Amino acid sequence: MTCIQNQRIYTLRNCQGGTVIDLSGGDNYSMIGYRDHNGPNQAWIFHHNDDDDTWSIKSVGADKYLGIDGDVNDAGNGTRVVAVSFPFKWDIKNSDIQGVEGIRILLHGHKFSVDLSDNGNATEGTPIQLWTRWHGANQIWAPVERKWCSVKEQNSYAL
C-alpha cells in the first residue's frame, strides 16, 4: 500500500535532486524539476481507480494530467513526461530503495519509472522523463501533502 491517499493533493519532491515536479509555465506542457514555490503548477491531485488499481495524477493549476509524450507502446528510456488532456494510468509503489522514503511512479504495466533526468540533477528546468526502473533515488518522489483551497474560499477567509 502506498503512502498517498485518494483525492489528496501533493507536491512531489525528488529524493535525489530535491526539486519538485513542475508543470512548466513556459509551455504548459513540459514537466521539469524546479524549486518548490508552492504554486498550483506544482500541486497534484491523486485519483485511484479501483477497477485496475491504477492512479491518475491531475494538476491543480491546469485541467491536465501527468502523462507521456507519444504512445505508451513506444515508451522507452528518455520519453518525456508531459501534461496530457486525459487521465493517464500510473502504478504507484512505495520506495524500494533502503533509506529512501517516498513513492515510485511507474508507467502502468511497464518497467519505466518517472525520473529526474541526469541522475537527479537539481538544476531548475531539468526534464522529467521515463527511465528503466533502477535503484536510484532520482526515481523516488517524496509526496508532501498540500492543503489547497479555491480562490473563492480564499476570498471568504479574507472577509
Total domains: 1
- CATH topology-level fold name: Trefoil (Acidic Fibroblast Growth Factor, subunit A)
Mean pLDDT: 93
CA radius of gyration? 15 Å
The geometry reads as: globular
Q: How many beta-strand segments?
A: 12
The low-confidence runs, each spanning 5 or more residues with pLDDT under 50, are 151-159
Pfam families: RicinB_lectin_2
InterPro entries: Ricin_B-like_lectins, Ricin_B_lectin
Protein name: Carbohydrate-binding module family 13 protein
Organism: Suillus plorans
3D structure, described in words:
The chain is mainly β. The protein has a single domain (9-158), classed as Trefoil (Acidic Fibroblast Growth Factor, subunit A) (Trefoil). 8% of the residues lie in helices and 38% in strands. The strands form four sheets. The chain has a four-stranded antiparallel β-sheet with strand order 5-4-1-12, with no helix packed on it. The protein is globular, with a radius of gyration of 15 Å. The termini are far apart. Mean pLDDT is 93; it is low at 151-159.
